[in-house]
Amino acid sequence: MAKTMKKFIRHTFFVFIPAWAMGFILASILHTTSVLIELAKIDVSVGLSDWLFMIKQDLLGLLPTYGVIIAVTLALAFYITQYVINRSQSRRLESTSFPTRLALFSAAGAISFWLMLMAMQPILNVTLIAGARSLAGLLAQCLAGLIAGCVFAYLNNKSTAKT
Length: 163
Hints:
By secondary structure, the chain is mostly helical.
């Protein structure tokens, strides 16, 4: 377990931070888009400049809260996934292929976003991320987690190949 933690810490800035950033940015943009689409459904007109302004404001406004929650969620998901991969490799004495790692980290990212959003509801009695109130919005947030997992697996694979 200590070896997994050292590797995870070593790759944090080159692997985790870009994956987290991609997940957070996508989640924030998808949240804003979902809210604005719902406004359009009730005939609220939002121009392109307002749309872009709201995306920027949500990115900045959600960073200290949703951004931190996403960071913790992804860190746990990726750490657990890496631990499981390392345990399975030590038992089979073979390396896990990149497509398998990609699938595992992508699933971990998507599932972690789903669990995070589901946990917010009973704890806070409100869905803080308005863009996740519909099924499409929830799936869009999980897509952001999936893509974060893809980025993590890709960068981790490149980083591992160099060492």
